[in-house]
Amino acid sequence: MTHSKEISARKRIWGWYFFDWASQPYHTLLVTFIFGPFFASVAAQYFLGTGLDEQAADARAQSMWSFGLGFIGVFIGLGAPFLGALADSSGRRIPWIFGFSLLYVVGAFGLWFMLPDGSNLWWGLCAFGLGFIGAEWALIFINSQLPSLVSDKGTGEISGSGFAFGYLGGVLALAIMLLLFVEQANGKTLIGLDPAFGFDAAAREGTRFVGPFTALWFIVFMVPYFLWVRDVPVAGAAKASVSAALASLGRSLKSLRHNTSLAAYLGSSMLYRDALNGLYSFGGVYAALVLNWEVTQIGVFGVIGAISAALFSWLGGKLDQRFGPKPVIIVAIWLLIAVCVVIVSMSREMFFGVPLAADSALPDFAFLLCGVFIGGLGGTLQAASRTLMVRHAKPEAPTESFGLYGLTGRATAFLAPTLIGLATMVSGSARLGVSPVIGLFLLGLVLLRWVKPEGDRS
Q: For residue 182, which phi and psi values (nearest 5 degrees)?
């Protein structure tokens, strides 16, 4: 305990920021811009080899990725509130964060072994899922530490700055991968080099290195977190007990009937965060399958999106501090709906129904612009959502409250990928497959009407 007194509040906040910096590459490099599109292109080539035509192979690849993400999301969501209650009953969060960090590292590292001939696609999906479970479950405990870092009124700026710092880490990691490792069709990286460390371009080793790289990045940059962040002692904390955790979770779920604002907020954020995750998960896949971009092009798109995410998150934190999180969330959702309409209405051949010349750069430019807004508004939306949850969290059991937030963020995590998978299958088009995201955003907006800007705390 004396040790925690020696660590200044400023250091604790910076240590907490470093989790975002360390973990962001899982989302930036693996989910969205390098491994996701790599998986989709390898799967599409594999299905093409089974005799399917190109459009059917693309749709099958997108469906496999989407249903895989959906299953992983359900698993994450079901465990989230129980883990939160278990941690609150003991008052300890850091051992849990350490344990889930190990899952993150093992899962990410395992991606190296997915082969570019598509012969072990399921291995790639399972390793990805293991690391993603570690990343998402650790985040529940990280988020629950936010109220202990600063007073309620300061959480908006801290939350926004944390996301901004994380996105900068994601940009740097992505830039390193693109410049030194990820090979283009000609076997060279973005700046014309052979992949570093003598990696074999023909075996896609530069691209596959994204897994071990993400794992090593996390190990190195979690050091400040574990050095500077300590568990805050909780009065009356006992040994972690499964029965106490279940009882506490049961009480929390029952109390939602009398807590309209929290119930509406959990429902709303469940839908719009699911829609956002759908955009993140399929932005790179869409570019690979609909616009036929190479992984390096998608990576450049990612760098632009992540830089805008850092700027928008920081700016969003300032607006959140001034106007509160709810108005920031509403504006961000409406703008994201507009972006989705553009994405669904264009392809390599046409833009809003208007035919395009075969060599037209308009779809590429429009999608780059969409990337700026998806990255920027997504960062703003996540940061403001975390702040609004702090205003609804029970002061005596923040991890449990964020466990419910994690549950609702993931309980329907199968929705966006599954709806995208079904829409892709029915329409036979990877482009139209993204359209269900618009409906999820709109439903989230409807439920926000019952959410109090300051939460239900008396």
A: -70, 120
Strand runs labelled E in 270-400:
350-351, 354-355
How many other CB atoms sit within 10 Å of the CB of residue 300? 18
Q: Which residues make Cβ contacts (< 8 Å) with residue 401, sequence separation at least 6?
A: 84, 144, 252, 389, 392, 393, 394
Query: Which residues are CB-neighbours of 291 under 8 A, at least 6 positions away?
Result: 347, 348, 363, 364, 367
Specify the amino acid at residue 141.
F
Residue 291's SS3 state is: coil
Per mean pLDDT, which of 53-67, 280-294, 408-422 is the most reliable? Answer: 53-67
> Under CATH, domain 15-225+241-448 is a member of which superfamily?
MFS general substrate transporter like domains (1.20.1250.20)
The residue type found at 53 is: D
Tell the burial category of 331 from Cβ atoms under 10 Å away from its Cβ (0-12, 13-18, 19+).
middle
**CA nearest to 82, candidates 408, 407, 413:** 407
Decide if 80 contacts 407 (C-beta within 8 A): yes
Rounded to an integer, the average pLDDT of 201-209 is 96
CA distance readout (Å), 215 to 40, 111, 269: 21, 10, 29
- Contact between 333 and 272 under an 8 Å Cβ cutoff? The reply is yes
Whole-angstrom CA distances from 68 to 71, 138, 184, 336 are: 5, 20, 26, 25
Closest by CA to 456, choosing from 271, 284, 183, 257, is 257
What is the rounded distance in angstroms from the CA atom of residue 218 to the CA atom of residue 421?
Answer: 31
Q: Tens of pLDDT along 388-444?
A: 998 888 777 777 777 788 777 766 667 787 888 888 888 887 788 888 999 999 999
Residue 324 per-residue DSSP state? -
For residue 61 the two structure tokens come to: 């690849």
d(CA 48, CA 57) in angstroms, rounded, equals 5
- DSSP summary character for residue 232: P
What radius of gyration, in Å, describes the C-alpha atoms of the chain?
21
Q: Is the dihedral of CA 424, 428, 430, 434 positive or negative?
A: negative
Write the CB contacts of 257 (distance below 8 Å, at least 6 apart in sequence).
263
